[in-house]
Amino acid sequence: FFFTLLHLARRRARATDLPPLPFPHRRSLSVMAALLLCASQSSASVDYGDAVAASFGDGSAADDLWFGLATAPAHAENQLNDTWLEFASRGGVHAWRNTPRAAERLHFWTDPEVDIKLAADTGVSVYRLGVDWGRLVPDCSLDRETPCGVQQWEVLDRYIEIIKSVRSHGMRVMLSLFHHSFPRWGVTWGRAETPRGAAAGEMFTHPRSVEHFVAFARDVIERFAPLVDFWVTFNEPVVFSMLTHCMGIWPPGPAVTNPYARLNCMTNPKTGALLAQNNMIRAHRQIYALIRANELAAQLPLAPVGVAHLIMDSRPFAVGFDSASTLFIDLYSKYYFIDQLKETLDFCGINYYGLEIVTGIGPGLAPKEVEYSGSGRGISPTGLVSLLEAYQARYGTDPKARFMRGDGYGFVVTENGIADSQDLLRPAYLLEHLLALRAAQRRGIRVRGYTFWTASDNWEWADGYCPKFGLAAVNRSDPLLRRVPRDSYHLFTKVVRSRRVTVAQRHAAWRRVTTAAANGEMKEVCRSGDALGSLDTPDRWPVLGGTTLPDGRVVDWRYDDAKVESPGAEDTAIVTDFIEHSMALSSATGFDPAAAVVSALAGFGHEFVGRPPPPPTLPGGGGGQDTAAVLASVLDALDAMQRRPLPPPPPPGKGGADMFGHFFKGFADALDGDATATEPAEPGAARSFWPFEKAGSARAGSSLWLTVERRPEASGDGRRGGPAPLAAAAALACLALMVAVRRRRRSSEGASSEGALL
C-alpha cells in the first residue's frame, strides 16, 4: 500500500513540476513500506517451525498408539452376490443406479493388492478387513436343524491368500466376522410393513441364527487363527439391528414408517432389535470361547477379541421431549451391548463419526448451526473424548470389564472417518480427532489404536456411492477403477510415518476450512431432508467453520479440552438397569413395563399415523379395549403404584438393579389391581403422564404434571425435522419411571431429593 502511495507521489511531482518529497520523508515511507510488507507476508504464512501439537511416541512402548485403515467385504469385494446387491437391485440403495460399475465395488476380491498397497504405503501397522458369511456359506436355511458351517473351502483359501498379502506388506490383521451382511438365505423379500417392524423372526431374531453363525465362525477360526492379530466378532450390532428391524432401511426392508412400531421394535425384548442383539451377545460369548480354546490347543499367542461398537455424540433438537428421548436412545444404544459382553471383551472397539441431533425417536438436522460431513454427520472431535470419559467412568473400576483390567487391551478406535468429496474438511477432521485421542490418553484413558475409514471411496450401505469416505478418490469410469490419492492421503501418511501432528499442519488444515467458508464455498452432502435417508446426487450446503452465527457464537469444531463433558454415571446406570430388568421381568412373568407403555402409546397415537397396530393386551385381560382407556389404565397403574408402599428396599450395596426389580413388581401388581385415577384431567386438557411430588410437601395440590405437547411441523431456525409424535413421550415415560426410582432410592438412604432432575 505504501509503495503504491510513494509511486503515485513521485508521478504527481513529475507531472506538476512540484518538488519531490523531502529525503527524510521518502526514506521513512520506503522503510515503513518494507516493514509492512514483511509483516503482511509473515502473518499470511507464520513459521511454526517444528512445534508439535501431539506426539504418539516412537511405537516401541506397549501403549503407544498404532495406526490402521479399515474396509469390509460388502464395501469392497466384487463378484459378491450378497444381500446388499439384491437390496440395491430392488431400489433400496441410493446413488447406485446412476453410478458406473456399481456392482463391481472395488475389485477387492479379484485384485486386493491395489487397496492393500495403498494402505501399506501410508505406513499403517494394522489393516482391518472381513470375511463374508454368505460367500462362505451360500446354501442354508435358518430353519435347518443342523448348523451350516463353511461350504466353499476354495473361497476360504482365497481369503487366506488375501490375509497373507496383508501380512506380507508388514501389516497386522484385524478380522471382522460379521460386518452388516446377513446371508441371502436368512431374509425374505417383499414383505409388508407390520406393527412389529421389519423382518420379524429373521436374521438374528431367529432362534437358530446363533447356531448357524457360530458354526461358520468355528471353521474360520480353525483355519485363520495363526494369521489373525485381532478379532472383531460383530460390527455395530446395535446399528445393524435398528436399521434392519426397527427402521427397515437396510435389507430386506420394507421401510418402517409407523413411529410406534419403530419404538416397540426398540424396546420390546420379544421382537426386533433387542431380540437380535441378545442373540448376537450369545453368539459372541460362544465365539470368544472357541477362539481361546483353539489358541490353547494350537499353542498360539492370544489375539485380542472385541466388537466394533458405534457411539455418537447425541444432542437434543430442542429441550423437553427431545432431551428425554436423547437420553433414553443414547444410553440404550451406548451401554447395553457392552454391559452384556464386558467379561468376554479383550478390547472395546469404538466406531465414532461425530454428532447426531435427536428429535422425537429419530434423527434431525441443524445445517445452519452444525458443520456436517458429506454423509450428514455433525463433526465433533471433542465429543469423542466425552464419550471415552463416560466409558472410563462406567467400566474403569468394574472388575468384570476385562478390557479395562491389567490383562485387557483397553480401547481401540475401530473406525473414524468423514465423507468429503472435495477434501475440504477431511484434513482438519483427521488431525482434530488425533489430537482428541492424545488428550484422552493424557486423561488416563487407555486408547491403543486408531483405525481410519477408509483408503478408497466405496459403496456405503443404503447411501450407495454418494458419500466419499476415501483418502483416495476412485475413477469409476475407468474399467480398472484407478485410485487418485487426495491431499488428505498424503497428510495421513506424514502423520503416520512421523507419529506426530505438528502445529503447522493443524493451522493449515483449519485455514483450509475457514478460507472455504469465507469464500462462500459449498460442500456436498448426501443426507436427505428427513435426516434419515440419503440422496442419489448430493445436495450443497455452506461450509461453516470459522463463521459467526446470528447469536454471536463462532462455529469452531476443533478439539477443545475445556469443552469435554463429565459423564453422568448415575443416569447411565439407571437406563441400563431399566432395560435389563424390564427384559428379565418379561421373561419371568410375561409382562414388560416398557413394552406396555409403548404398546399403549402405539394404539393411542393412531390419530397421528392413521395405521394403528392391534389394540394392546394388558395383564388381567382387556384386549380390544378402547385405546384411550388402555392408555388411561397404564397411567392410572403408574399413579397407583406411586401411592402404594414398595416392599422393603434391598440391603445396602445391592444398588439400583434390585430396586428396579421391586419397582417393576409393584408396577405389575398395580396394573392387575383396581387402579383409578384420583386427579382427572379437565375436559379438553392433555392427559398427564406422571405426577411428581415436590420434595418435603404433602401430595395434595403439590404435584408437577407433565403433559403431551406437539411441536409445530417446522421451525424458522433452519433446522430440519418432522413433528415430534406421541412416540417421543414413551421415552419421557420411561425416564419418569427412572427418576421416580432414583428419588425413592435417595429417600430410603436418607438423602434429600430436592435436586432430583428430569
Overview of this structure, please?
The protein has 758 residues and is of the alpha/beta class. It is 41% helix and 14% strand. It contains 23 helices and 17 strands. It has an eight-stranded parallel barrel, surrounded by seven helices. Strands 1-13 form a two-stranded antiparallel ribbon. The chain has a two-stranded antiparallel sheet with strand order 11-12. Helix 8 runs parallel beside helix 11 (272-298) and helix 9 runs antiparallel to helix 11 (272-298). The longest helix is centred in the middle third of the chain and has 27 residues, at 272-298.
Please give a quick description of this structure.
With 758 residues, this protein is α/β, with parallel strands linked by helices. It is built from 23 helices and 17 strands.
Question: What's the SSE blueprint?
Answer:
Blueprint: H1 2-16, H2 23-44, E1 52-55, E2 66-70, H3 73-76, H4 83-89, H5 113-120, E3 126-130, H6 133-136, H7 153-168, E4 172-178, H8 209-224, E5 230-235, H9 237-246, H10 259-267, H11 272-298, E6 305-316, H12 321-334, H13 336-341, E7 347-359, E8 362-364, H14 381-395, E9 410-416, H15 426-442, E10 447-452, E11 472-474, E12 483-485, H16 487-498, E13 500-502, H17 503-518, E14 522-527, E15 534-542, H18 569-589, H19 593-604, H20 606-609, H21 627-643, H22 656-672, E16 688-693, E17 703-707, H23 727-748
Parallel strand pairs: 2-3, 2-10, 3-4, 4-5, 5-6, 6-7, 7-9, 9-10
Antiparallel strand pairs: 1-13, 7-8, 11-12, 14-15, 16-17
Helix pairs in contact: 8-11, 9-11, 10-19, 12-23, 14-15, 15-17, 18-22, 19-21, 19-23, 21-22
